[in-house]
Design a protein that fits this description.
The structure is a single chain. The protein is mainly alpha-helical. The protein has 3 domains: about 1-120, Rossmann fold; about 120-155 and about 200-280, Serine Threonine Protein Phosphatase 5, Tetratricopeptide repeat (Alpha Horseshoe); about 290-465, DNA Cyclobutane Dipyrimidine Photolyase, subunit A, domain 3. It is built from 21 helices and 4 strands. The protein has helices at about 10-20, 40-60, 70-80, 95-110, 140-150, 190-195, 200-210, 215-220, 230-235, 240-250, 255-280, 305-310, 320-330, 335-350, 355-365, 370-380, 395-400, 405-410, 420-425, 430-435, 455-465, and strands spanning about 25-30, 65, 85-90, 115. The strands form 2 sheets. A two-stranded parallel sheet has the order 1-2. The chain has a two-stranded parallel sheet with strand order 3-4. α4 (about 95-110) links the parallel β3 and β4 (about 115). α5 (about 140-150) packs across α11. The protein is globular, with a radius of gyration of 24 Å. It starts with 10 loop residues before the first helix and ends with a helix. The structure holds flavin-adenine dinucleotide. The site of flavin-adenine dinucleotide (FAD) has 27 residues, from α9, α11, α14 and α16. GO terms for molecular function: deoxyribodipyrimidine photo-lyase activity. Its EC number is 4.1.99.3. Belongs to the DNA photolyase family. Keywords: Chromophore, FAD, Flavoprotein, Lyase. InterPro entries: Crypto/Photolyase_FAD-like_sf, Crypto/Photolyase_N_sf, Cryptochr/Photolyase_FAD-bd, Cryptochrome/DNA_photolyase_1, DNA_photolyase_1_CS_C, DNA_photolyase_N, Rossmann-like_a/b/a_fold.
Amino acid sequence: MNNALRLADHPALAAACATSGPVIPLYVYDNTHDNAPGAASRWWLLQSLSKLDASLKKLGSGLVVRRGTVADVVMDVCTETGACGVYMTRGYSEHDKKTEEYLHDFAEKNGLTCKRYAGRLLLEPEQVVSKSGTPYSVFTPFWKQALSLIDNAVPLPVPQKIQAPVSWPATTSIGALGLEPKPASWAEPIAAEWQVGEEAAIERLDFFVDATMDEYQTARDIPGVDGTSKISPYLAFGEISPRQIWHKVSMHLGDATKSTAALAYLRELGWRDFSYHQLFYNPEMRIKPLKAKFLHFPWHEGTSPAVKAWQKGMTGFPIVDAGMRQLWQTGWMHNRVRMIVGSFLVKDLLWHWHEGETWFWDTLVDADIASNAASWQWVAGCGADASPYFRIFNPVTQGEKFDPAGAYIRSFVPELCDLPNEWIHKPFDAPLEVLAVAGITLGHTYPAPLVDRKKARASALAALASIKD
Ligand SMILES: Cc1cc2nc3c(=O)[nH]c(=O)nc-3n(C[C@H](O)[C@H](O)[C@H](O)COP(=O)(O)OP(=O)(O)OC[C@H]3O[C@@H](n4cnc5c(N)ncnc54)[C@H](O)[C@@H]3O)c2cc1C
């Protein structure tokens, strides 16, 4: 059940149930490899496994949970139970590919069935290739091709019955996996923000499509309003499938008033597929720039007080600080602000995008190996179809444009609450008497700016010039 923690639209589960034999739903927690879940994902996983187990129990089944490397555990469970087949949902990282190959060989040698099913993307990476058979590195032609291939198949229902084995193999308790946050208080605001699990995913999608989607095109860029679907963590854990979302949203494509919004939204799901497309064809995407010349970019690496200030939302640039605090407090950050804070780290601070990718990996509840790495490479200018490196986001003008009344800043940076709109994005330029009335002393109640942006911009462009071919 790894990365497909749901019962509906689950091709591997449906196929296993269709054999009419007993089925052992298995989740293997493996924290030994580079893509092991970060702290926020572990918190989500803890809730998600419990929800899935409860749903399975309602069907007379249950979730067997074990710790170890996926291939070893699956082989052990097969040997212990005399299982005659392995049914799994496909993954796209190098680690997933190796696990699948290993299990395939094991099954072949032992006369077992081994079947691998899609279920995490709209289309498989091999399906969306150019006429000459090559993968895409630019989104627009990728999406055009994808749109011509996607059908609107009705998602698979929850299996009516999952036959239990005569005797269940041993299971580790979910609580013993060590997924609890430390300290526990860190996750309290995150828990207040989210409902986890398959049922919550469907509720969230229904709410978005019925109540919010019409305004998506304009609202999606405004961090101060709830204008996006916030479906990303459910997708990251496979609590909902992209095909379920496609099906629900595409019901509105025939409706003239809704279809533009629906298409704009589906296009974002296309970016998710495109990220996996890139990961599949560039297995080292988490560590290696897709544009080779960026291997020599003189980014700073490691930790430093500047990186710590960025992580804590203490840079002195309000929109950056609001974003980083939203991430820490809720495990999620608005997409527009992810781009702004990312640009600030890699261009204003000249810090390596790995630092940002790793921090996001640890703190996002929607941490996703493909979307995170592809997006960080996009921000850093070294990815496929990336924002050019010389396009440096100005956090002040970005804030003024997308959060003009400072609603977003005020909710996450309360110490700036009483600043008038004119200065909320640039307290460092505000007259002293305005700061005094708002109760702000720069460097004391709110940080002075971490960098001189003019100098930072010049350094970033000089760094870029140093790697020009
Ligand atoms: C630096 C950076 C890091 C990111 N890291 C992640 C990550 O770890 N996990 C993750 O799911 N997304 C990541 N994103 C993409 C995007 O920010 C989130 O998918 C989006 O904010 C999730 O909120 P939502 O579900 O409300 O999105 P909506 O706007 O409602 O979009 C619906 C879905 O489309 C997909 N989507 C939207 N935008 C993108 C995008 N730019 N790239 C890929 N898929 C997209 C997501 O699955 C999202 O849930 C990152 C973006 C940046 C700039």
